[in-house]
Amino acid sequence: MSEQEKMVETMPKVSVIIPIYNAEKFISETIESVVAQTYPDWEIIAVDDGSTDKTPEILKEYAKKLPKKVRVVTQKNSGVSIARNNAIAVAKGGYVAFLDHDDLWMPEKLEKQVKLLNSDEKLGLVYSDCDMIDHEGRLKKGSLFRGKMFRGDVFNELLYADFIPILTAVVKKGVLDKVGVFDPKYKIAEDYDLFLRIAERYPIDFVEQPLAKYRVHGGHASRDVKTAVDEDFQIMEYWLKKKPHLKKELKYRIKLKKTRSYRSLIWYYLGKHEFRKAIGEIKNFMKVLIS
User: Fold this and answer.
1) Cα(232)–Cα(3) distance, rounded to whole angstroms?
2) What's the whole-model pTM score?
3) Is 119 exposed, middle or buried (0-12, 13-18, 19+ CB in 10 A)?
4) Which of 17, 167, 173, 207 could form a disulfide with 103 if both were Cys (CB 3.0 to 4.6 A apart)?
5) How far is CA 75 from CA 20, 43, 141, in A?
6) Per residue in 189-229, pLDDT tens?
7) How far apart are CA 163 and CA 125, in angstroms?
8) Which domains does the chain have, with CATH numbers?
């Protein structure tokens, strides 16, 4: 029996979930980065979220070429949360990994992360650092984190700042069965909401080296800063109500987080020349400062 066959027998299958919408320019490269994994026991669940370009044809070819490895789920355009949830519902793997349609993985990503997950049965999720690339795949200066990574009981740190890039996350399927899946009411912070629910109940660990590449380009959906801040505040207030002791423990850090968010909104509205809205956020900023 080869070493690869031994690995398949002793390690759990990983279900790789890829929500896809109009990704004809990138999806082949994304899928190939999974095919190139040194960890052999994976399946791709590609969810076509109502694409109108050549994406369906590309996915059909991969399903034909790799019938035991690639499954295609189709749905009307409903967004990434519903796409990921539909994929989770049919996932066969003991572990679930997430990859967006224009991002990439390093070849050793799954091997390193599955090994770490297997080393501690209590772990719920493992993540890693990742690099940023441009539209053409050229490496941009600096990693995505640029700061400290956290392991163990990370709930308080995660409430202060979302430091887990979803393209690096690998989660035990049993954990999702217990904490639930993505909440479609969130349009931007759906992964942050899920990761906090995981962090509340399970320790988390990381691989420090970059194991993925996050693509930054004009083709990304517009990230509405106002929506992002509103959802972030909504999630934070939910947890502060659920865990009222955190208001005292994290008072200073929550204040910093709010001022940082309002500052982002101020610059966002100034950049759009929406000066009245900018003034409104300046007032909110000042209220937090003097509170």
Assistant:
1) 45
2) 0.91
3) exposed
4) 167
5) 10, 19, 37
6) 999 999 999 999 999 999 999 999 999 876 444 458 889 99
7) 13
8) 3-215 (3.90.550.10), 225-290 (no CATH)
